[in-house]
């Protein structure tokens, strides 16, 4: 527990191996959207964090840099000296903050579909990927992403719905159904970016980071592609770029994702 608020967790899978800790994205999105991560719990148990600002933990984030302390608290509660972290999307910021601030507590990082421009400064190329799709729903999503950030909860929820097609390489019934899993709120998302040190990027890149793997999709409009390639290079990470895949590889390319994730976690 940090900041007088217990951080809720959820254990997935069983077995004798130490669990990996999972940080969902969003930011502050209910982890329901993670599904079973393509069944990787059949091989490796997971403990899923419900970050501040999600329904089960409640409250508000203290900013992803400070919320890294919550991962350490979870590791302490599990009696784990060092942990393997699996993080998706916005959650990868918290994972990197934990690795930079508490290097002796993080054994490895598996970073899935990470937003990258904040770390690399690389121009975002998502609009190019969107234009290649030539689909009305994707065009509308890209236009919404380029508009100013909504300032009301109703506007935020509307933007989530409109922008959902940009998260997937295809927009079929499977992806439509998944896009509604795991809600998040404007207030929680804004709080995620509070109190971030001005030198956060320098501290991450200057840290002795653990072994790191990045899994990304080559059709991910949300992150872009070149920023993620540069991100992996700067972190000296192994990069697994999945073909025909967007922001949710365990949904879109479950076999390829499972192989990549277990290849890393089982090494």
UniProtKB/TrEMBL annotation:
Gene3D superfamilies: alpha/beta hydrolase. GO terms for molecular function: hydrolase activity. Residues 48-249 form the AB hydrolase-1 domain. Keywords: Hydrolase. InterPro entries: AB_hydrolase, AB_hydrolase_1, AB_hydrolase_fold. SUPFAM superfamilies: alpha/beta-Hydrolases (SSF53474). PANTHER family: AB HYDROLASE-1 DOMAIN-CONTAINING PROTEIN (PTHR43433:SF5), HYDROLASE, ALPHA/BETA FOLD FAMILY PROTEIN (PTHR43433). This is Alpha/beta hydrolase. It comes from Microbacterium caowuchunii.
